[in-house]
Amino acid sequence: MEAVSNIANMPLVIETTFKTLDLSAINLIKEEFTIDYYIEFQWRVNANYCVKAVEKLASNKTDLTKPILITGKSISKQIWIPDLIIERVRAMAQTLEPVLTINIINSNFCHLTVNKRESATVGCPLDLHAYPFDTQICSIKMRSANYPSNEVKYEWLSTDPNDKTSVNTTLSLPKPINYSYLMVTYYFVRQITTFSIQFFYPTTLIVFIAYCSAWITVESGPGRFLLCILPFLTLVATFNGIKGTLPSISYVIAIDIWYMICMMFVFTAIGELTLVNYLHKKRSLIVAKRKRDKEDQPIAVQHIPNGFGHRIITTADMMAGLEGDQQRRRSSYAPKAFWNQFSNNFHINVNNDNNNGIHVMADNEPIDRALQVDRVFRVIYPICFAIFVIAFWVTYMS
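User: That's the sequence. What structure does it adopt?
Assistant: Structure tokens below.
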């Protein structure tokens, strides 16, 4: 069947009403969504055209003065109905059979109405730069399948002011053959609350757990190491789970930035642990070396009275004095008396330089740089992460 205009040399005007009945969420991987909708077409043709159609579709006793209602799949075989198609449609199903209403107004004009309910899966190219703070705009473009705009023209009959999914506009393709277009636009706004509970809060907690490792002493060894490594592995697994729900894209999105910065903070905690462990071991080697060399180093100076100068006392001298007095200690069974005699011979005075006593030489401990690094890390780490979180949310929420 062909489209027939009621005015010579003028396109057939199809007034269209579109109503969304059900709308599914966007499938991010396939970049598509499914819509269940109701659509109605109204147009006018010559009255003789309607009379012939009634003779084919209805019984001979049909009253032509009243609206005639006809249903069934055979309608399109007997009378032309609008051949509107959807661009980027991937699957389409007719949920209800079309209903044709024929209303012969007078001997010149006839008013035709077709109601259809259909379900369509439509592709929607996604812009995920701001994901998950994004708003996706998906449009359904409908046009005639066979007739250019100079033969069939589609227009909106009316637009519900409360229905923000419809856009009353007519577009044409920049091609040699132009088609009349109807477009319906949907705005998908993502609810960030659910995503925050599923991703942002857990990853923030993971970064905080890695930070807690700085409050554990380096002597704990494996315990502190696991407190850094496990958050790192958990963060990788969490991000892989989120990326599995997204299509393959070649650009960086907001969640990539969040993940990379969180990964950098956790890796910083691991690097800080490595540095602290190195400094701690280095200091332990220095302390051990000093301990080994202590026997050969002077620990005190004994000032000899009557002007005979002084004598350097080492740990070996101290041990020799103790061994020389072991027999006397065994015979006297008086440890207190032995130590009194030892103190009289080797009087150690730390605070005063007594000429008649012994002045102890200072043995300074090496600086604990591992502890210093930990203290600096405990302050800088949370401040830097807080600055990043504030900057990230302000940037994308605005």
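The longest helix spans residues 254-293.
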